[in-house]
Specification:
The protein has 179 residues and is mainly beta. Helix content is 12%, strand content 39%. Strands 3-2-6-9-10-5-4 form a 7-stranded antiparallel sheet. A 3-stranded antiparallel sheet has the order 1-13-14, with no helix packed on it. Strands 7-8 form a two-stranded antiparallel ribbon.
Length: 179
């Protein structure tokens, strides 16, 4: 059976975030990801599909710690570049791209100051596939910017950044509430 070249894109648009890892020597790197999801609520488990070719993947494997930063639409250019430029080519890539990093409270990996939300987590499992690896993390802390989070959901003005495919992005335009 031959699958269409569109197989991965039929599941988009999806929220996009920046996952950040740290090497044993303290170097920081991150990349944009849209293939992530919650797996379990209590304890909070989430997964991220990440290519082993990424420097971020190597750093995560070294220290097992991450932050997953849910980003707003206003950060679209920086988020896109974080996924397009290798940390092997541009040292201190996230800072060079204009992200302001802050210390996290549980893991040593920093988070992005302007994120709408972030999760501090540790790698607990991995399922390798041909071109990506499903990395499974235990969430240790979840932070949300309460200016953009009400009633247990992001507000419309949060403008959560969505990845449509390639270099195309979107934001939710309106919500429908069903009674």
């Amino acid at each position: 059976m031959v699958l269409s070249k569109y197989v991965a894109r039929i599941m988009h648009p999806r929220p996009v975030s920046v996952i950040i890892g740290m090497s044993r020597t303290g170097e920081i790197n991150g990349c944009s990801v849209s293939w992530f999801m919650p797996v379990n609520v209590d304890p909070f488990i989430f997964s991220v599909s990440l290519s082993p070719e990424r420097l971020t993947y190597s750093y995560i494997k070294e220290t097992k710690e991450v932050t997953l930063n849910i980003m707003p639409f206003r950060s679209v250019e920086k988020v896109h570049r974080a996924g397009s430029i290798s940390g092997r080519e541009l040292k201190n890539k996230l800072v060079e791209l204009g992200f302001e990093l802050e210390s996290s409270s549980i893991v040593r990996v920093p988070h992005i100051k302007d994120a709408l939300a972030y999760v501090e987590g540790i790698l607990i499992n991995e399922l390798p596939f041909r071109d990506h690896s499903l990395m499974v993390f235990k969430g240790l802390k979840v932070y949300v910017d309460e200016r953009y989070f009400r009633g247990n959901i992001f507000t419309e003005d949060a403008e959560v950044l969505l990845h449509v495919g390639g270099n195309t992005y979107a934001k939710p335009s309106n919500y429908a509430r069903v009674e």
